[in-house]
Specification:
single chain, alpha/beta, TIM Barrel, two-stranded antiparallel sheet
Length: 267
């Protein structure tokens, strides 16, 4: 599995499995187990998904060394009143000694105070890396003025249909790795004719083209699926490259299409 090196020298697998909206219990367990057996080594969950326990169970069931698996979870908005308590609760549910990445899920009002707590969690070694999610350039600039530790990741919705080029450039300039959730547009654009035409050219699926576009932009992608065949299909993207001309075409698919909340409205 290809990895990228974060600004604290930690390595992150460039492709992961997201478990947003995967049902707690067997659905999540099976998805994570299938992913790990397929070759994934990166699992992305969050407190608000209510499936951290199932992720932890699957990791243990897989019998794969803990050190080989990159695990992300996130501080939910309600947890900002006591971020350390929220973090410890996530760790307990995952039944792990540490997480590889802990993110502030949304740039809510208390974000700067919470970042100070995340810095302490990082120093304790219980989170190997810390970062943010859904931060705009404005939110990142504000954080960078006060942060003693630069976030390693900004996880945002990102796809050819939501090509946030300015944000990508800002993150790259500041050594913050961009990570894409909903890279498959939650299925909304998979039947777009111009995307299907490109997929046919490479004898790949629309989903595989969308994932590969992210990877070739050096963006970490975390597509979500609970279906075994889709989990395998999403992983089968390391045996081809999209030509430069077609990457440019995909870049021009942008229509600011969001499937999730728009964080630019958050002051």
């Amino acid at each position: 599995m290809e990895t990228l090196t974060l600004n604290n020298k930690t390595k992150i697998p460039i492709l992961g499995l997201g478990v947003y909206q995967a049902n707690p219990g067997k659905e999540t367990e099976n998805a994570v187990l299938n992913a790990l057996q397929t070759g994934y080594r990166h699992i992305d969950t969050a407190a608000v998904y209510n499936n951290e326990e199932a992720v932890g169970i699957a990791i243990k069931e897989s019998k794969i060394s803990r050190e080989e698996i990159f695990v992300t979870t996130k501080l939910w908005n309600a947890g900002h009143s006591d971020p350390l308590k929220a973090f410890n609760e996530s760790l307990r549910k995952l039944d792990l000694d540490y997480v590889d990445l802990y993110l502030i899920h949304w740039p809510v009002e208390q974000r700067l105070n919470s970042w100070k707590i995340l810095e302490e969690i990082y120093k304790s070694g219980k989170a190997k890396s810390i970062g943010v999610s859904n931060f705009t350039i404005k939110h990142l600039k504000e954080l960078l003025k006060v942060a003693k530790i630069i976030p390693v990741i900004n996880q945002v919705e990102f796809s050819p249909y939501l090509y946030q080029k300015e944000l990508l450039n800002f993150c790259n300039e500041n050594k913050i790795q961009l990570e894409a959730y909903s890279p498959l547009t939650r299925g909304h654009k998979l039947n777009d004719k111009k995307l299907i035409d490109l997929a046919k050219k490479y004898n790949k699926t629309s989903a595989q083209i969308l994932i590969k576009w992210e990877l070739q932009h050096k963006i970490v992608a975390i597509p979500k699926s609970t279906k075994e065949f889709r989990i395998k299909e999403n992983f089968d993207v390391f045996n081809f490259n999209i030509e430069k001309e077609d990457m440019n075409k995909l870049d021009n698919f942008n229509e600011n299409f969001r499937t999730c909340w728009d964080p630019s409205n958050i002051p």
